[in-house]
Backbone:
């Protein structure tokens, strides 16, 4: 049986590939469970310094497997609950892990595929990609973190329009409104993603992890609370080998080797005496 999510590590980069191409990578229980398992594995692998989420076949992700949802009949609530018991922790883990996450959107995304595309720290898309929420079209409300992500990325008004009216958004419009980071030239997505992943993998993982958490919590914090959180994090990061050696490399006008520091000592190891 084909694995519904593939995990491949190339050097310090982990590629998570949604692998149900014949059904647009629609999410069923096995895919949701595999995404959770492979996300945990990528996060736990100390050699992995950047995670890329992508899809096989024509689509990035068609959302939930509507055929299976229909076949569930009266068991639909139980099926939805089981799918989301894996999918939602996977999305939360991708958002909160120390490692940078890139989503590579080569084709259409619908429903949960929109949330999965948006959760990347950087989301790159081919010109042919487009995005549709589509939940109310099948009589359901959103999942996959869309109602948390979209208001923060787009603003409430645009999130309302996309969620209630199900308007399809092109890749260019998605970039203009902030749903994705940018659109790349046709046929260059894999190259652009690989180049960015290599660049991010060379970065300081502890600093990136703290930055991700600060950005995620900023919307719910007062200015004073966020300033305090920034103070605590930069002071803590300054006490790590990563922080001290990064500054030293800048002063000495050389590239820091964060990967060597972290593999020997750990991301948040304190500076040696």
Residues:
């Amino acid at each position: 049986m084909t694995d519904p999510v593939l995990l491949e590590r190339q050097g310090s980069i982990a590629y998570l590939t949604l692998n149900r191409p014949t059904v647009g990578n629609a999410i069923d229980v096995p895919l949701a469970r595999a995404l959770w398992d492979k996300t945990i594995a990528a996060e736990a692998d100390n050699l992995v310094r950047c995670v890329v989420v992508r899809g096989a076949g024509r689509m990035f992700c068609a959302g939930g497997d509507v055929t299976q949802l229909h076949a569930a009949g009266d068991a639909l609530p139980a099926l939805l609950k089981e799918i989301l018991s894996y999918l939602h922790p996977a999305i939360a883990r991708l958002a909160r892990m120390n490692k940078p996450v890139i989503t590579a959107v080569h084709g259409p995304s619908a429903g949960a595929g929109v949330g999965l595309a948006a959760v990347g720290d950087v989301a790159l898309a081919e010109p042919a990609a487009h995005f549709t929420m589509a939940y109310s079209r099948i009589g359901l409300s959103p999942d996959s973190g869309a109602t948390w992500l979209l208001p923060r990325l787009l603003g409430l008004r645009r999130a309302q329009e996309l969620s209630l009216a199900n308007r399809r958004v092109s890749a260019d419009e998605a970039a203009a409104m902030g749903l994705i980071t940018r659109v790349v030239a046709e046929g260059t997505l894999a190259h652009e993603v690989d180049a960015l992943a290599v660049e991010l993998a060379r970065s300081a993982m502890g600093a990136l992890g703290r930055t991700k958490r600060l950005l995620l919590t900023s919307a719910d914090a007062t200015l004073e609370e966020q300033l305090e959180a920034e103070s605590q994090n930069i002071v803590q990061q300054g006490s790590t080998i990563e922080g001290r050696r990064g500054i030293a490399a800048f002063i000495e006008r050389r590239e820091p080797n964060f990967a060597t520091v972290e593999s020997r000592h750990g991301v948040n190891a304190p500076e040696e005496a």
Summary: Confidence is low (pLDDT under 50) at residues 263-273.
